[in-house]
Amino acid sequence: MNKEDSLEEKTLSSTYIYQGKIISLRQDKAKLPDGRETVREIVEHPGAVVVLALTDDNKVVMVRQFRKPVDEVLWELPAGKVEPGEDLKNCALRELEEETGYYSRKIKKLITFFSTPGFCNEKLTLFLAEDLEEKNKNEDTDEFIEVELIKPNEALKLVQENIIKDAKTIIGILYLVSSKNSIEY
Amino acid sequence: MNKEDSLEEKTLSSTYIYQGKIISLRQDKAKLPDGRETVREIVEHPGAVVVLALTDDNKVVMVRQFRKPVDEVLWELPAGKVEPGEDLKNCALRELEEETGYYSRKIKKLITFFSTPGFCNEKLTLFLAEDLEEKNKNEDTDEFIEVELIKPNEALKLVQENIIKDAKTIIGILYLVSSKNSIEY
User: pTM score > 0.80 for this model?
Assistant: First the structure.
C-alpha cells in the first residue's frame, strides 16, 4: 500500500438529492482507508473562471456585486461559471466582457484551484488578461455589477484590511503581488 | 437610492431542499434591483477556521488529505468547521491539535473570507499560530491525515507550480509571503 492509497476513499454508492440550475447535491457512501464506512455530502458545480485583468496603466479591473448567500456587496475579480462544452479561455474572455465591458487581446492561464474541496468539487481557473480594449458592457440578465479600477498596491491594502473578502479575489490579488517579476507586472 | 441599494436583492421566500450533517441547501426567491424576480440556490455551511501555524524554526505546518468531492489528495493548511457555539480561536486551536498534534501558545486572527459566495455562505477565518508545542495527534474518527513541515519559500513554490490547489491554503501561504514584515515572520 503506497502513501496515496493509505489516504484514499472508495465510493460505494452515490445518491442525488437535488439537481438544480447551477449546482447539484449528492450523498456518497464511501469506504475509509481503515475499512469503515462514512457518508460524504457533495455539492457539484460546473467549474468557473476568474480573471485578473490589468489595464495599460497597470490597474486591476474589479467588480462590486451583491451576493445573496452572504447578503453583502463584495469586491471581486470578474468571474463566472463555465457553460457546457465551453473552452476556459473563451469563458474568461466572455465573463470579462459581460461584467466589465473590457475585451482582452492577451490572456493566459495562471493557476487552477478548488474553492472548498471538503464538500464541493468547484474548480476555478485564474487567468491573467492584458492588452485590454473597452467595449460595451453586456450584463447577464440577473447580474447587477459596478466596475472599479484599482492599483495593485491599493488592492493589496484592501486584502490586508479585510475589505476584500472573496476567496478567489484574494488569491488573484496576492498572486499578482507575490509574482511581480515572473508575470511581468 | 444609494449605491448599495441599487445592487441589493430582497428575499421573497426561502425553501429548504435538504438539511444535512454539515451542509444544508435552500432555494431563495429574490427580487432584483430592477424589480424582476429570480431564484438563488444557496448552500448553508456553519463556517470554518484555517490555521497558518509556524514552528520555531519558521516552517509552515501542512497536512495532506484525500478530499472525496475532488477525488484527490490535497496539500492544505490545518482547518475544520466550527461547532455550534464554539469560539473561533478555540476552534482553530482544536483543529490544529487534532490534525497535526501541535498546540499553539500564541494565536491571532488574520482575515476572514468567503470560499465561494456565489452559491454558499461558508465563511472562513484565517489564524496565525505560533509558539507551538508538539502534543499527541488526536484525529477525527473519519479523517486520515499526513503532516508535513515546509519552509515558506517552498510553500510559495508549491503555489506557483500549482501543486497546492486548495483555495484557503493558497490564501494562507500568499498572505504570509506578502506580509513578511507586518506579521513578523
Answer: yes
CB atoms within 10 A of CB B105: 10
CB contact under 8 Å between B115 and A167, yes or no, is: yes
Name the pLDDT band for B173 (thresholds 50, 70, 90): very high
Taking an 8 Å cut-off on Cβ atoms, the answer to whether B167 and A39 are in contact is: no
Residue A66 β-bridge partners? A73
Residues of B in contact with A159 (CB under 8 A): 111, 175
Within 8 A of B171 by CB-CB distance, chain A residues are 167, 170-171, 174
Interface of B with A in 140-179 (CB under 8 A): 142, 144-146, 156, 159-160, 162, 165-168, 170-171, 174-175, 177-179
Mean pLDDT of B53-79: 97
Q: Do the chains contact at A146 and B3, CB–CB below 8 Å?
A: yes
Q: Please, which residues have CB within 8 angstroms of residue A31's CB and are 6 or more apart in sequence?
A: A9, A10, A12, A37
Check whether B45 has a pLDDT greater than 70: yes
Question: What string of H, E and C letters represents the secondary structure of chain B?
Answer: CCCCCCCCCEEEEEEEEEECCCCEEEEEEEECCCCCEEEEEEEECCCEEEEEEECCCCCEEEEEEEEHHHCEEEEECCEEECCCCCCHHHHHHHHHHHHHCEEEEEEEEEEEEECCCCCECCEEEEEEEEEEEECCCCCCCCCCEEEEEECHHHHHHHHHCCCCCEHHHHHHHHHHHHCCCCCCC
> For the segment A119-129, what is each residue's pLDDT rounded down to a tens digit?
999 999 999 99
Burial class (CB in 10 A: 0-12, 13-18, 19+), B144: middle
Picking from B142, B177, B181 by the largest number of A CB atoms within 10 A of its own CB, the best residue to mutate is B142
